């Protein structure tokens, strides 16, 4: 039985290593100066407008590149837990410098080792905010389906494009 446990551990480590190599192949943007309040509010305003347009109760959080909250807004009637989920999505997107949908797709594809990564939230709705090729922050959205959260977060990020 001891040999079986070692083989299982070795296999798990191999799967995790293969996933890590695949993720590293996509070079994330370098960190830049932290997002300012005015830019964070602009992203959040566009996200909130998208949520309202679709009549979705959402929480929207914008963090700096270190995952610290710069701006947070929760529409009336949004479930309270969505605030914590939106924060976690933004922190994951900032910390790993990639959309949280990457982790959702990995888990859906059977790569459950992702669930062991600290702070990796495998649910769409967290996006890095990249300005002039540098990650300056992230936006996290929660309150709807994963696809709805992603759509609203995307509206926030798109509002910052030139």
Q: Outline of this structure?
A:
The protein has helices spanning 2-24, 37-53, 81-96, 101-108, 146-158; strands spanning 59-64, 69-74, 126-131, 134-142. With 162 residues, the protein is α+β, with helices and mostly antiparallel strands. It has a single domain, classed as 2-Layer Sandwich (Beta-Lactamase), CATH 3.30.450.
Question: Explain this structure to me?
Answer:
By secondary structure, the chain is of the alpha+beta class. It has a single domain (29-158), classed as Haem-degrading domain (Beta-Lactamase). The protein has 5 helices and 4 strands. The chain has helices at 2-24, 37-53, 81-96, 101-108, 146-158, and strands at 59-64, 69-74, 126-131, 134-142. It has a 4-stranded antiparallel beta sheet with strand order 2-1-4-3. A hairpin with a 4-residue loop joins strand 1 and strand 2. Helix 2 (37-53) packs across helix 5 (146-158). The longest helix has 23 residues, at 2-24. It is globular. The termini are far apart.
Map the helices and strands.
Layout: H1 2-24, H2 37-53, E1 59-64, E2 69-74, H3 81-96, H4 101-108, E3 126-131, E4 134-142, H5 146-158
Antiparallel strand pairs: 1-2, 1-4, 3-4
Could you please say which CATH topology applies here?
Beta-Lactamase
Structural classification: alpha+beta
- Kindly report the spatial arrangement of strands forming the biggest sheet: 2-1-4-3
Shape: globular
Annotation, overall tally of beta strands: 4
Q: What is the CATH architecture descriptor?
A: 2-Layer Sandwich
Helix content: 40-55%
**CATH-level-4 superfamily name:** Haem-degrading domain
Straight-line N-to-C gap: 60 Å
In CATH's first tier, which class applies?
A: Alpha Beta
The parts where pLDDT drops under 50 for at least 5 residues are: 3-24
As for the number of domains, it is 1
Largest sheet: 4 strands, antiparallel
Put simply, the count of helices is 5
The topology string of helices and strands comes to HHEEHHEEH
């Amino acid at each position: 039985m001891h040999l079986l446990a070692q083989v299982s551990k070795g296999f798990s480590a191999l799967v995790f290593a293969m996933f890590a190599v695949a993720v590293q192949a996509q070079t994330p943007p370098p960190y830049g100066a932290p997002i300012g309040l005015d830019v964070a509010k602009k992203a959040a305003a566009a996200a909130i407008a998208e949520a309202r347009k679709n009549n979705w109760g959402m929480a929207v959080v914008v963090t700096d590149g270190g995952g610290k909250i710069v701006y947070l807004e929760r529409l009336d009637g949004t479930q309270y837990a969505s605030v914590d989920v939106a924060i976690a999505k933004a922190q994951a997107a900032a910390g790993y410098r990639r959309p949280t949908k990457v982790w959702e797709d990995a888990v859906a594809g059977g790569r459950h080792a992702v669930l062991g990564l600290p702070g990796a939230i495998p649910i769409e709705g967290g996006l890095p905010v990249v300005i002039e090729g540098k990650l300056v922050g992230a936006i996290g959205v929660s309150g709807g389906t994963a696809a709805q959260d992603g759509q609203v977060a995307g509206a926030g990020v798109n509002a910052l494009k030139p």
